[in-house]
Amino acid sequence: MLKMKRIQQIKEYILKNQSVSLDDLVETFDVSKNTIRRDVQKLVNEGHIQKVYGGVAANHAKLEAFQDRQIRNQAQKRLIAREAASWVKDGDVIFIDSGTTTLELIHFIHNKQVTVVTNNVDFIVQAMPYKQLQVISTGGQLERKTKSFSNYSIAEELNLYNFDKVFMASTGVSISNGVTNSSPVETTMKELVVKKGRDVFLLVDHTKFDKYAMVTYCGLDEIDYLITDDPLNTQYVNFIEQNNIKLFVATDKE
Known about the structure:
Elements: H1 3-17, E1 19-21, H2 22-29, H3 33-45, E2 49-52, E3 55-58, H4 66-70, H5 74-85, E4 93-96, H6 100-103, H7 106-109, E5 115-118, H8 121-126, E6 134-137, E7 141-143, E8 148-150, H9 155-158, E9 163-168, E10 172-174, E11 178-181, H10 184-196, E12 197-203, E13 215-218, E14 225-228, H11 234-242, E15 246-249
Parallel strand pairs: 4-5, 4-9, 5-6, 9-12, 12-14, 14-15
Antiparallel strand pairs: 1-3, 2-3, 7-8, 10-11, 11-13
Helix pairs in contact: 1-3
């Protein structure tokens, strides 16, 4: 087995099982313990896993403050948002999820005649000057870390809407764990929005792949459009093709 392929399979195996011993990896992949140690160290250096007593464990994506996430990879996030915004047409009813990448949509749709339903507090504030944007807040409890509204009893209200397009964010994405989120209170709303969207867009930069957070709100196969900033590996490309997902890698065209 080629080294890079083996390391990729080891990573997926650890992500799936959450934590494993080195002996388990040696037996599963039929290589020496020294080889496993080198492969594991590479994954640790890349931030995918962490060493624990007696073995290794997957790195869980943690809920960070909105301001901390906003400044990371901001240029890439804006490119992703620009590509996503190109799909928004006048007259659309859309949902914009809480997130630092989805927030960037405001820069590219503010001149369009659309109805926006959102739990994204910063989007609501930044939309104030643009009268052509009809903005509807989901309401509920203010989550300060994510600058979003959450609401356990949102189901009845969301069922009133038929979204032309929904633009979703994620803390971590993987084939085995799907599209995940660090805030359990937001999960019910996200699940409903995905089901109510005619076209579901997932906006994630390259740092979100092969990571997962506390709660899965939809499978990766439930996404219609995946927009990111870096080419994906063969495993993801094959999965995307098999599930008829449209993939777009946003680049600086100007």
